[in-house]
Structures are given as C-alpha cells and as structure tokens.
Write a structure and sequence with these properties.
Helix content: 10-25%
CATH superfamily of the largest domain: Thiol:disulfide interchange protein DsbD, N-terminal domain
Shape: elongated
Distance between the termini: 65 Å
Structural class: alpha+beta
Oligomer: single chain
Largest sheet: 4 strands, antiparallel
Strand order of the largest sheet: 1-2-9-6
Number of strands: 12
CATH architecture of the largest domain: Sandwich
Number of helices: 2
C-alpha cells in the first residue's frame, strides 16, 4: 500500500506546498539573495495554481472579457450593438436586475459615451440564472457567455466612435474579485 508506484493524487494545495518547500530548501543552497527571493516568489505564486498561470485572479477583468459587434445604423439612425461578456468557468457576475436589493450596487451595468459624453441608450439585459442560497436569499447571475444589447440613435452626420463601458464584479465559491470597468470602442 505504501509502495512508490501508488497513483494516488495529492490535493492541489498540498502538492503546491510541497513544491514550495522543495524550492525554498533549494534556496538555501543559492549564493545570491536575489535568486533566493525569485525562487520564493515562484514558490508562493504556485499556490494559486490553475488556469491563471500560477497567479490567482484579483480583479474582475482577469476573468471577464468583452467583445463587441455592431450593426450599421439603420435609416432611422438606430444602431444595435451586441456586447458579449465571456466569463471564465467557475466564475459568475451579477445579472441586471440582480433581484436582490442588497446586491444592486454590484450588478452588471452598461454606460454608453459618444465623443466622450454620456448618451441615452436602451440596454437589454438577459434575465440571468436564479441562485437560491437558502434562508430566503436569492439573486440572478450570468455565467459563461452573456450577450447584452445596446440600442442608440445616432445622427447621420455623427461618425464619432461609440464607447461601451460595462461595470462588472466577478465572484466564485471562494471569493469576490474587485470590480472592473470593461471598455470597448465601436468605430
């Protein structure tokens, strides 16, 4: 049972800590304090592990990406812009409306600017998935890919780029990341 051919997997944190221990022990043999410091930084960064190349995500923009596609303005000047949010697996962002007054400040929101000034636009948010945490606490989230629709009226003579600003806060089972503003430009 205790032979060296065992294929039992160690938990990720235990493996990372053992790796850190080995690196730190090797650090004692290094001649330079600088190289020892680099080895220690590498060892500590391995604890985060996973899909983030050894560095745990800190801000929401680490796990939420934005992509924009836009139709040409119609004859009546209305332009429809599709805002696709790609959320990394195991993370989610709060829907709009979130369905819980305690979370409204952190729900996903969109602002639109033309020529550096805010403009009125109709934003269509999908409903989102309902989460029930028990004790009467419910809210809605977006996971995976989510498409928000922005409709605005543009004057025919206005060819200024449209700036889309999406405010998000990503979370998973372990923690809430710092909020981010994702920006994209529609030429």
């Amino acid at each position: 049972m205790g032979d060296s051919t065992s294929t039992t997997k160690r938990p990720k944190l235990v493996s990372s800590l053992m790796c850190c221990r080995c690196i730190l022990e090797a650090c004692n043999m290094l001649q330079s304090k600088f190289h020892c410091f680099i080895a220690a930084v590498f060892a500590v960064s391995r604890i985060g592990g996973g899909a983030y190349a050894g560095v745990a995500p800190v801000v929401s923009s680490d796990v939420v990406k934005i992509n924009i596609t836009a139709d040409k303005p119609r004859g009546d000047g209305i332009q429809v812009i599709n805002v696709t949010l790609s959320i990394s697996p195991s993370f989610h962002i709060l829907a709009n409306p979130v369905g819980n007054e305690d979370l409204v400040a952190s729900q996903t929101s969109v602002r639109v600017h033309v020529a550096g000034r805010p403009v009125g636009a109709k934003i269509t948010y999908p409903q989102g998935k309902l989460v029930d945490e028990g004790n009467g606490v419910t809210f809605r989230i977006y996971e995976g890919k989510t498409i928000l629709k922005v409709s605005l009226t543009r004057a025919k003579e206005n060819s200024s780029p449209v700036e889309i600003i999406v405010s998000v806060q990503a979370s998973n089972e372990q923690r809430n990341l710092r909020p981010s503003r994702l920006t994209a430009i529609v030429p």
